Amino acid sequence: MAEQLTALSIMQDAPVIPVIVLRDVNHAVSMAKALVAGGIRVLEVTLRTPQGLAAIEAIAKSVPEAIVGAGTVRNAADARAAAAAGARFAVSPGYTTSVGDACRDARLALLPGVATSSEIMQAQQDGFNELKFFPALQAGGINMLKAWQGPFAEVRFCPTGGITTANAAEFLALKNVVCVGGSWLVPTDTLERGDWEHITLLAREAAALPRKA
Q: What is the pTM of this model?
């Protein structure tokens, strides 16, 4: 059985966690290998498409050097299905205690999504101090994260939603941001044409981003 990871170790692995939406499971393994080759091995494959679980399973079996997880985990059933497919962590767009409990039972590290102070307090009450700030830009962006540094000094964030190559460094410069989540590492058109070298280049650039936390 693989060693159980912590949310913090997932966040610290690289400055960017790619948010991956796959519509063709045949792209999964080549894409994962391309990202790993560029220095990005923590991969969030979302459950937004019917191919999500199959893609997680393919990567878990064929790219052991990758750390594959499930995104868009919204309920306990999603968490159980993700674990069964071989996911090692989960990312949720929001947070409920039932999702937190299910991830613990399934030995999945969880990055719960929060957008308000009340949601942070609920997640902390259940033992989670490493959180996904989502949707980051729409929910207040840099200024919100700065405001939270006072009352939630011990919390570490992974802002996701509206993060791009143009603003990632600004987020990573904050002392309460460990990493960011972004979809720019795996552009849809790049996937469709199978340009794995370009994905490796994007991953290499992302892995080299400086961060403060």
A: 0.97
With vertex at residue 133, the alpha carbon angle to CA 127 and CA 139, rounded to the nearest 5 degrees, is: 135
CATH entry 3.40.367.20 includes domain 7-207: no
| Catalytic site positions | 44, 132
Give the pLDDT of the chain (213 residues) as one tens digit per residue. Answer: 567 899 999 999 999 999 999 999 999 999 999 999 999 999 999 999 999 999 999 999 999 999 999 999 999 999 999 999 999 999 999 999 999 999 999 999 999 999 999 999 999 999 999 999 999 999 999 999 999 999 999 999 999 999 999 999 999 999 999 999 999 999 999 999 999 999 999 999 999 999 987
Residues 6+ apart with CB under 8 A from 102: 75, 76, 79, 80
